[in-house]
Amino acid sequence: MEQLTAGVGTCVAELKELEAKNNVEQVFESKFWQQNCDFTLARDVLLAAAGSINHQITKFSLVMAKEKTPSEAETLSICQAIYEPCQQLLAALKVAIFAGAGFALTKEMIQGGLRIVTNMHELIRLVGVKEFKRVPEFTGRIWDSCNLMQNLSKSNLIATKRIMLQTVAVLNDTIIELDGVLAEQSNKSEEDVHERNVEEEDDLSFDMDETMSPLELQQFKQVLALLKMVQAISKKGVIAVNATEAIDGQDGFLPWSSRLPILYDDINEVIVDMGADISPPFEAEIILEHIDHVERVGIACIQHLKSQPGLANKADLVNGEVAFTKKIQEVRATLRLDE
Predict the structure, then answer these.
(1) Which residue has the higher pLDDT, 330 or 132?
(2) What's 246's domain CATH number?
(3) Is 309:253 a contact under the CB 8 Å cutoff?
(4) Which one, of 77, 59, 48, lies nearest residue 139 by Cα?
(5) Which of 6, 38, 214, 230 is deepest in the core (most CB within 10 A)?
(6) Total structural domains in the chain?
(7) CA–CA separation, 297 and 266 (whole Å)
């Protein structure tokens, strides 16, 4: 069982190494946009391996459900039967990547593969130490992971749009929530607005209903307006991709489009990190740290949209970049004001 655990652990390590190459080094480039025979074949093998793991896990669960605890030889045999499709899954995933999967598609495949093999690794470890009570938990996780793998994108186009639309959805949800906070704060009477005495505050208190001071409310509105500009910028990218879906890598479009999911992944990370810090209690110094990141991802996205191959009219994007830069300056100035 130790050798088997080590084998699955090697699969996990290889997937994490590929993940670092994709997410950090960004070494995998898109070689097709909509369809590719080599990738389609590798994807079919990948999904078949996930289906085989699902089938073997079902057999494993039936054995473990018996009143009589299975023998070590019996559990080892079943675990080995599960390990073989794990190896097939890893091999097919590598073929799919090198068939021309770009950042978004590679990230999707690796995340799906890791969900399966990390849970598999823990399952085998639990069986090895005879901790059978937790086995149903991990068989369930593996089932879910295998089923999720069936939704794997069929092309770089679909994977790219998924990341972009996810980022837009996160922005939309964040802005809706913050609009609600603003409405609540604006409805409070002036008698409810009071100065905070930081010396009397409990360091461990997280009062989300705390009333903002007039300055904090002004700062909050400025930050919210900035996020709405980022939202507008991100939607322009989605529109650009939708308008050029028929183009399949011609005239420099493929390398341009391959950069989009990386940019949108950055935007998503910034918004997720920033979102919770904007809600009351509002701390201007903390928000200022986020503004630098918002500026970086926002400008990078606008400049990339301006470089779209065949784009005839860039005036809207040029004006948008000027307005965005101006808003960044206004937000910084407002956040640096004292009570």
Answers:
(1) 330
(2) 1.20.1410.10
(3) yes
(4) 59
(5) 230
(6) 2
(7) 7
Sign of CA dihedral 328, 333, 334, 335: positive
Distances 23 to 16, 59, 193, 318 between C-alpha atoms, Å: 10, 36, 45, 30
Which range in 76-85, 144-153, 179-188, 311-320 is most confidently predicted, on average pLDDT? Answer: 144-153
Pick the last residue of a domain from 120, 138, 153: 153
Whether 250 and 326 map to the same domain: the answer is yes
pLDDT on residue 133:
84
pLDDT value for 204: 45
SS3 for the chain is CHHHHHHHHHHHHHHHHHHHHHHHHCCCCCCCCCCCHHHHHHHHHHHHHHHHHHHHHHHHHHHHCCCCCCCHHHHHHHHHHHHHHHHHHHHHHHHHHHCCCCHHHHHHHHHHHHHHHHHHHHHHHHHHCCCHHHHHHHHHHHHHHHHHHCCCCCCHHHHHHHHHHHHHHHHHHHHHHHHHHHHHHHHCCHHHCCCCCHHHCCCCCCCCCCCCCHHHHHHHHHHHHHHHHHHHHHHHHHHHHHHCCCCCCHHHHHHHHHHHHHHHHHHHHHHHHHHHHHCCCCCHHHHHHHHHHHHHHHHHHHHHHHCCCCCCCCHHHHHHHHHHHHHHHHHHHHHCCCC
In a domain, 201, yes or no: no
Global pTM value: 0.85
What's the CATH number where 61 sits?
1.20.1420.10
242 shares a domain with 215? yes
Q: How many CB atoms sit inside 10 A of residue 36's CB?
A: 21
Same domain membership, residue 168 and residue 141: no
Indicate if 271 and 141 belong to the same structural domain: no
Q: Residues 6 or more apart from 20 whose CB is under 8 A from it?
A: none
For residue 256, the enclosing domain spans 157-195+206-335
Looking at the structure, do residues 161 and 295 belong to the same domain, yes or no?
yes
